[in-house]
Amino acid sequence: MALEIKVLDYGDIELESSFLVLGRNCGIRARVYTYGFLILGGQYPVLVDTGFRDNAIMEILGMRGLQFHEQMIENQLARNGVKPGDVRYICHTHLHIDHAGKDDHFPMNTTVVVNRREMECSVSGLMHPQYPKPDIMHLVERLHTPGALRFEDLELSGPVELIPGVVLEAANAHTEGSMNVHVETAEGRATICGDVIYDIQNQIVDPYHQINANEPQVTGNHAGSKRGEKAAIKKLLNGSKFLLPVHDKPAKVENGQIVGRLDMAVPGPVSQTVHRRHWFPV
């Protein structure tokens, strides 16, 4: 079954640049998108990530949230003819502050799907305060409500098909419980990869401060090893036709290389062809 992914614009975040790409422009502010993803064409809509709770909550990380009326989650869904009550599953790439902030806008018969390891990490104190109390407390309410929360154990089970054409797989990067969401589209596999990738240009196309061939740069915000981060990015490049990070525009992949960028739907027209710099020995 061919599915389509609509990109939802939840607003922007201003933050320190080296948070996104390790060592880049330390002390200089950058502004990034915050996206969610609506999967359509199946039996019912599936939503991936719900953005940040409100602008003020981003201040606990020293960041600035920039979300306006048109970017509220109900309005973004409505642009695609969907109401919160229509969504059957909300899948979370992970539970950080800018990914799981509006689950409480959905009824309890919408099932939130998380990797169990991610829920464990959210209350472990690791990467605190990126897991804010109101978001996690809402998930605890769902934990005690029949059918409102679903756990996967992807590190042990391997990939799991949520609905036909949508497969969940452990990301093994960014946080200990992050997961990728693979979607079968008419043009090939598209992978919603959360924060495994923040910045496609500076991590993959022209990786910042990397000199080895095909060597991606890591983010400045990850719980695991740099080797694990690099391997996770390489796996994405070798397994998917499209990559959809939460804080950058989607990318088209051919033969393990980024060849184009897309806008607000996948599949969709390529809005920008990628030209990488070529390095030659001196």
Automatic annotation (TrEMBL):
Q: Which UniProt keywords apply?
A: Hydrolase, Metal-binding, Zinc
What positions does the domain Metallo-beta-lactamase occupy? 33-247
State the source organism's domain of life: Bacteria
Q: List, in alphabetical order, the Gene Ontology terms for molecular function in this entry.
A: hydrolase activity; metal ion binding
User: What InterPro entries does UniProt report for this protein, alphabetically?
Assistant: MBL_superfamily_lactonases, Metallo-B-lactamas, RibonucZ/Hydroxyglut_hydro
In the record, the note on similarity to other proteins reads: Belongs to the metallo-beta-lactamase superfamily.
Q: What is this protein called?
A: MBL fold metallo-hydrolase
Species of provenance: Neoaquamicrobium microcysteis
